[in-house]
Amino acid sequence: QVQFVESGGDLVQSGGSLRLSCVASGFAFATSGMSWHRRRPGQPRELVAGISSTGGGTNYSNSVKGRATIARDNAKNTVYLQMHSLKPDDTAVYYCNAGSIVPKYVTNWGQGTQVTVSS
Question: Measured between alpha carbons, how far is 69 from 51 in angstroms, rounded to an integer?
Answer without folding.
Answer: 10
